[in-house]
Amino acid sequence: NINLHKSKGDYYYDIFILFGKNWKVNRQEVLRRMYIAYDKADKHQINDYLSLYALGYFHHLNSESNKAIEYFDRSLSLDSNHAPTHYNLAYIYTELDNNEVALKHAWNAYKKYKYINYKNDACQMTGSILGKLERHEEAISVLLDCDRLIPNTYYTYYYLLNSFLHLNKTQEALITAENMFSIDWKSHTINTD
Question: Considering the entire predicted model, what is its pTM?
């Protein structure tokens, strides 16, 4: 029964999300089993937005961007409110240097995420992309929202500093740099950027 493959895929997807590396089978094997089950079900048109998202995520992890985009787009056609799909599409389109499309998906992820850590990640991505597009005033506005969501994070300050410097806002850049280095001056990330 093909429906069992879909259920088996759901089972392994749940294990992947809930247990990560802390399950009796390693993470790659869990992903492989999830993929095989969802792929069999999908070949018989048994799918939903989450199984299509999981197939897209699998292809994304395996650096198969075009295949990932195909599954993510199919997932969004079934549920356009799924924030992780938008976030992963934004990430892929940024890698492909298609920043206008990436920005659309980053904005959607930012608006749709409920969990504050994920919302903040999407917010930082949105600010970063706006900066790449030379839309620094908008980037600053978004990144200040990030700082309100989760104050004093390195990447929020990093992208803010970039936009302040591009706009020759020296005083703001100086304050941001001081804040950035006061987070954790011993941090590997700070010392290697």
Answer: 0.89
